TrEMBL record:
Calcium in keyword set: no
Molecular functions per Gene Ontology: ATP binding; fructokinase activity
Gene3D superfamilies assigned to the protein according to its UniProt record, in alphabetical order: 3.40.1190.20
Family matches, as InterPro entries: Carboh/pur_kinase_PfkB_CS (IPR002173), PfkB_Carbo_kinase (IPR050306), PfkB_dom (IPR011611), Ribo/fructo_kinase (IPR002139), Ribokinase-like (IPR029056)
Originating species: Kribbella turkmenica
Keyword tags: ATP-binding, Kinase, Nucleotide-binding, Transferase
One example of a Gene Ontology biological process annotation: fructose metabolic process
Carbohydrate kinase PfkB domain mapped to chain residues: 5-305
Name assigned to this protein: Carbohydrate kinase
Pfam families membership: PfkB
CDD domains: bac_FRK
Family: Belongs to the carbohydrate kinase PfkB family.
Length: 316
C-alpha cells in the first residue's frame, strides 16, 4: 500500500439545526450531532474514494470524541499519534440550515495539534479551514509547511473562510496568501472569494495566488454553477449536474477530497507537484470533484461518496 495522504486540521461534531419547514438527519426537526470539521471531512472523503489517508487532529474521549473516533476509524482514516487526547474537550460547530439547505456555522473550538511530521513517501499534505487561522495551531501548521519547501510532496490548501472565527477579511487574506505561497494547489469557494476579496472577479483572485513560484493551480467552486480551474497552462470551466439539493453541508469538502483523489489517480502528486497537469486533465479532475460534491448535496450532512457510488451515479 502506498504512503497515505496527510490531512492536517480540525475534527469536530456538527450540531445541525433547521430552518422552518426543514428537518435534520433524525427526521424530526431537532438538532442532530454528526461528525464534521472540514479537514476531517476531507480525510473521510479521500478514504471513501480509495486513497490511503492519515489525519492529524485533536479531539477528546468524551461522548462527542468517541463519536468522531468511531466515524473516522469506520471509514478507514488513520489517526496520527496524539490525535486522541483524554485531556482534550472535543470541539463543536452549530450549523443552521436556511430554506435552501445552505449551512451557516457558530463554533466552539480549541485547536492545538499534536506534533507534525511527514511519513516517507507521503504524496500530499492537505490543510485548511479553522486550523490554519486559529492559534496556537495556525503557527504550527505554517512552520510545518515552510519546512516542506524542499520535500517531494504536493501541498493543497482550502482556506474555507469562517467570518465568525476571523471577521477581518484583510488580515485573513494576508494569512491565506502566506499559506497559499507554500501550496501547489489552492481551492476556494465563491463565498470565500466574496469575503476575502470582495468585488474582485475569480480570475483576478486566481492570478494573485498564481503569482508566486510554487502555486500551480487554483480551483474556485461556484455552488450550483459548478467550478473553474485555472493553472499556468490554461483555464477550464465545469458545469454542475442538475440535482435535488437536500443540504450543502460538507459539499466543498467532498469536492476537495475528490480533487486530490483525481490528481492522485493521475500520478500528479508527490515530487511532481502537479508538473504535467494539462488543461484536459484539470478538466477531468474538476469534473470528478463537482460530481462528488453533487452526490453529497443529495443527502443529509457531510456524507461524501465512495468510489463505487461515484462510478454508479456518473460512470467511470
Amino acid at each position: 500500500m502506498s504512503a497515505p495522504v496527510l490531512v492536517v486540521g480540525e475534527a469536530l461534531v456538527d450540531i445541525v439545526g433547521t430552518a422552518a419547514g426543514r428537518t435534520t438527519r433524525n427526521g424530526n426537526g431537532k438538532p442532530k450531532a454528526t461528525p464534521g470539521g472540514s479537514p476531517a471531512n476531507v480525510a473521510v472523503g479521500l478514504a471513501r474514494l480509495g486513497v490511503p489517508t492519515e489525519l492529524v487532529t485533536r479531539f477528546g474521549t468524551d461522548p462527542y470524541g468517541d463519536q468522531l473516533g468511531a466515524h473516522l476509524f469506520g471509514n478507514g482514516v488513520q489517526l496520527a499519534p496524539g490525535s486522541v487526547d483524554p485531556g482534550f474537550r472535543t470541539s463543536t460547530a452549530t450549523a443552521s440550515l436556511d430554506a435552501a439547505g445552505v449551512a451557516s456555522y457558530q463554533f466552539d473550538i480549541t485547536w492545538e495539534p499534536p506534533a507534525l511530521s511527514l511519513t516517507r513517501g507521503c504524496p500530499a499534505i492537505h490543510t485548511g479551514s479553522i486550523a490554519t487561522v486559529l492559534e496556537p495551531g495556525a503557527k504550527a501548521i505554517l512552520a510545518f509547511l515552510k519546512s516542506m519547501t524542499d520535500q517531494p510532496v504536493t501541498v493543497t490548501l482550502d482556506p474555507n473562510a469562517r467570518p465568525t472565527i476571523t471577521p477581518d477579511p484583510v488580515s485573513t487574506w494576508a494569512a491565506v496568501r502566506e499559506l497559499a505561497a507554500l501550496a501547489d494547489l489552492v481551492k476556494l469557494s465563491d463565498e470565500d472569494c466574496e469575503f476575502l476579496r470582495p468585488g474582485l472577479p475569480a480570475d483576478e483572485i486566481a492570478a494573485e495566488l498564481l503569482g508566486v513560484d510554487r502555486t500551480r493551480c487554483v480551483v474556485i467552486t461556484r455552488g450550483g454553477d459548478g467550478a473553474i480551474g485555472i493553472s499556468r497552462d490554461g483555464r477550464v470551466e465545469v458545469t454542475a449536474p442538475a440535482i435535488e439539493v437536500i443540504d450543502t453541508v460538507g459539499a466543498g469538502d467532498s469536492f476537495m477530497a475528490a480533487l486530490i483523489a483525481g490528481l492522485h489517480a493521475r500520478g500528479l502528486l508527490g515530487a511532481t507537484r502537479l508538473d504535467g497537469l494539462t488543461s484536459a486533465s484539470l478538466r477531468d479532475v474538476v469534473d470528478y470533484a463537482v460530481k462528488a460534491a453533487a452526490i453529497t448535496c443529495t443527502r443529509h450532512g457531510a456524507d461524501p461518496p465512495t468510489a463505487d457510488e461515484h462510478g454508479a451515479r456518473w460512470g467511470a
